[in-house]
Amino acid sequence: MKPTSLKMTVLATIFYASSAWTGHAESLAIQNCNWCHGASAQGYAPAPRLAGQSDKYIENQLISFSNHTRDNPFSRLYMWGAAANLSPQVAHYLAAYFSTVPPKAADDGFRDLVAIGAAIYQDGIPDANIVSCVACHGPNAEGAAEIPRLGGLSYYYLKRRLEQWGEGFNAAAKFPMPQIASRLSPDQIEALASYLSFVN
Amino acid sequence: MSIIWSSSLLWPYLAHERALPKGEEAMSSSLRWMGLAPPDERPRRMMKVVSLQLTLPVAILTIVFLTTGRATSADRAGASKGTLEAKIAYCQDCHGALGQGYRGYYPIPRIAGQQTEYFENQLRAYVEHRRRNNIMFNVARVLSPSMRAALAGKFRAFNPRPLADGPRGLVARGEQIFQSGVPESNIAACAACHGPDATGSEQIPRLAGQLYPYVVRVLANWSKERGQNPANPDTSIIMKPVAHSLTRPQIEAVAAYVNHLR
């Protein structure tokens, strides 16, 4: 080979390899999330579905993990470490990526509680000062801006999240979720979580 | 690979086996590091001697007060849910801690500083289906007239800064429409009824500081939400020709203007 074309080949190989390297680093961050959140980000065991979630919401949660305002038991156990070394750029990138993955409903609630849960979600419980969730989370639990999508999240995740506000965890969350969730009774939480797990 | 993964899962459980200083040890060592003596090593003050004769009646009174004051949790829950404080918290859940409004999935309007007559009229309108909104219908249907009046008075007194999240570029045009109207479309100046500072009066609502997307939505959809009970027409009918005559750009301009008003 002539010297110039050899140089070109070497340069081209370096550029190709380095772009593959950067590409690999970006997808490595996603892989680290997939370990717990599932290969298609649909959630697994205590880790909630990230697919289709509001990107601003995911970013805010990553921030609240790293500054420890979200102190739920599993958050402390797993997410504090996971979010500790995320730069704002990577957090933004991850949030943008996961918000574009098509979500699938978990469908793991109790079917016989769906009607009750739907009534609570749509109309609230005015006698118990529970607002209709629709005002902020939307008629189909799709969320908006920084307000999370609830539709299709796992029954077990939603149930624990609502219960934990009543137990005093994540008290620094965005007003007014701690107050609202604290007013819900256990039966109401189960009904809501069941209904939402089926919402597509 | 799986061994590394599963052992990494055990890490949180293994970590606490190490002798990390906890509780009082940690406190004492921190205090020493700062040059202060821990509490149990400081010189104690002499304790005042209390007469033994007082302790028996005090003990009896303490027991009496503790037991008689306690309602059952059901009573307390029922009493507290119906109170004004509980209802205010209920309103604040959506409308904000100071009634400043919130951009949820739907724009939730500012109710701080709202005219009390207008406030109460709207709550009645939701219940009587003259104003159609499922969320507010459910909120309003459990409120007694006296509760409505109390809530109106409470939120009238709040005066938070406006969210002021509307487009600033439209404010000048909006001010022109608000103060002078649109004569070519037969639209009176908003200021004529709503006041030059958009604070309203009696049954005419305050617009100052209202959310931009809320004003736009309400003006653009006036007849879809208001005056829904033809058998029971209400004062909202007065806004119908105005809302219909305003073009969309004019609506957005006016909304942007009032949005920034204190």
Helix and strand layout, with pairings?
The complex is a heterodimer of chains A (200) and B (262).
Chain A lengths: L2 H35 L17 H12 L6 H12 L3 H13 L13 H10 L10 H4 L17 H12 L10 H7 L2 H13 L2
Chain B lengths: L1 H14 L7 H12 L17 H17 L4 H10 L1 H12 L6 E2 L3 E2 L7 H12 L6 H7 L4 H12 L14 H10 L10 H4 L17 H9 L1 H4 L14 H6 L2 H12 L3
Antiparallel strand pairs in B: 1-2
Which characteristics define this entry?
heterodimer; A: 200 residues; mainly alpha; Cytochrome Bc1 Complex, Chain D, domain 2; 2 domains; elongated; B: 262 residues; two-stranded antiparallel sheet; 54% helix
How would you sum up this structure, described in words?
With 200 residues, chain A is an all-alpha fold. Chain A folds into two domains: 49-101, Orthogonal Bundle (Cytochrome Bc1 Complex, Chain D, domain 2); 111-198, Cytochrome Bc1 Complex, Chain D, domain 2. Chain A has helices at 3-37, 55-66, 73-84, 88-100, 114-123, 134-137, 155-166, 177-183, 186-198. The longest helix of chain A is centred in the N-terminal third of the chain and has 35 residues, at 3-37. Chain A starts with a helix and ends with a helix. Chain B is mainly alpha-helical and 262 residues long. Chain B has a two-stranded antiparallel ribbon. Chain B has helices spanning 2-15, 23-34, 52-68, 73-82, 84-95, 116-127, 134-140, 145-156, 171-180, 191-194, 212-220, 222-225, 240-245, 248-259; strands at 102-103, 107-108. In chain B, 54% of the residues lie in helices and 2% in strands. Chain B is built from 14 helices and two strands, in the order H-H-H-H-H-E-E-H-H-H-H-H-H-H-H-H. The relative contact order of chain B is 0.11. Among the domains of chain B are: 77-156, Cytochrome c-like domain (Cytochrome Bc1 Complex, Chain D, domain 2, Orthogonal Bundle), CATH 1.10.760; 168-259, Cytochrome c-like domain (Cytochrome Bc1 Complex, Chain D, domain 2, Orthogonal Bundle). Chains A and B meet through helix 6 of A and helix 5, strand 1 and helix 7 of B.
